[in-house]
Amino acid sequence: MTDAVDGLLVKRAGPLALLQDAGRCGVRRLGVTQGGPVDLHGWAWANHLVGNAWGTPALEVTFGGLELVAERDLAVAVAGADLGATLDGEPLPGWRSLAIKAGQRLAFDTPVNGLRAYLAVAGGFSAPPVLGSVSCVVREGLGGHDGQGQRLVEGDRLRVTPCRAGSGRERAGEAPPQEAIDYRQPAVLSLLPGAQVGEFSGESLYRAFNMPWRVDDRADRMGVRLAGPPLHCRVTSMISEGIGLGAVQVPPDGQPIALLNDRQTIGGYPRLGALTPLACSRLAQCLPGQEVRLKAVPSERALDEYRRFRRTFA
Question: Do 201 and 277 fall within a single domain?
Answer without folding.
Answer: yes
